[in-house]
């Protein structure tokens, strides 16, 4: 089977992770959460490593370390993600993953626009900032994170502004992306919609 790449982009906490995992499981494809790459680099900078050096030296084990899902690491990730040399150090790994035989789902911010402009299917998943912040707040508080609702909303809004406003690979839908607004959709409904779009494009 030739490569079949599904690109899923969207702003912070839009539900890309849940959707991507479900889509990958449905089609038997591999899944890469590209946000983890930036989170791993961001986490290293919090330990004093220089960001470009951290990106160039990144290994698969770095993606497995504890604590990459905290708000502090998310902020650090979005700060390193504006650096062109950090982004370019991570391109080859993502493209190689996208081209694997058997199919791949990549989720992130620039998959449909920069990393995989020829992806077979491009989805842009979004929801209002309030809905996204509430989902992330529930996720974090279930893990014992002490952040308040207001702090989580501020984090989401700060990252959105940085991700959309940067010069390098800014967050935006690819011209040929299908928009899925999950504000009023259950997880099941969002997954069903994504699968229907993919089947329509594949057919
Ligand atoms: O899970 P959440 O949507 O909150 O964030 P994430 O996908 O883990 O991404 C963390 C940060 O990494 C984002 O705010 C972006 O700044 C950056 N990122 C990026 O620039 N490009 C990607 N393809 C993925 C993430």
Q: What is the radius of gyration?
A: 16 Å
Overall number of structural domains: 1
* Count of separate DSSP helical elements: 10
Small molecules in complex: cytidine-5'-diphosphate
Element order: H for helix, E for strand: EHEHHHHHEHEHHEH
Q: How far apart, in Å, are the first and last alpha carbons?
A: 15 Å
Shape: globular
Helix content: 40-55%
Question: Can you describe what's shown?
Answer:
The chain has 203 residues and is α/β, with parallel strands linked by helices. The chain has one domain (5-192): Rossmann fold. Helices cover 52% and strands 12% of the residues. It has ten helices and five strands; from the N terminus they run βαβαααααβαβααβα. It has helices at residues 16-27, 35-46, 51-56, 71-80, 84-89, 91-98, 111-115, 129-142, 149-165, 187-202; strands spanning 5-9, 30-33, 104-108, 121-126, 178-181. Strands 2-3-1-4-5 form a five-stranded parallel beta sheet, with helices on both faces. The longest helix has 17 residues, at 149-165. The chain is globular and about 50 Å long. The mean pLDDT is 96. Bound molecules: cytidine-5'-diphosphate (CDP). Residues 12-13, 17, 34-35, 38-39, 74, 77-78, 81, 108-110, 159, 163 line the site of cytidine-5'-diphosphate.
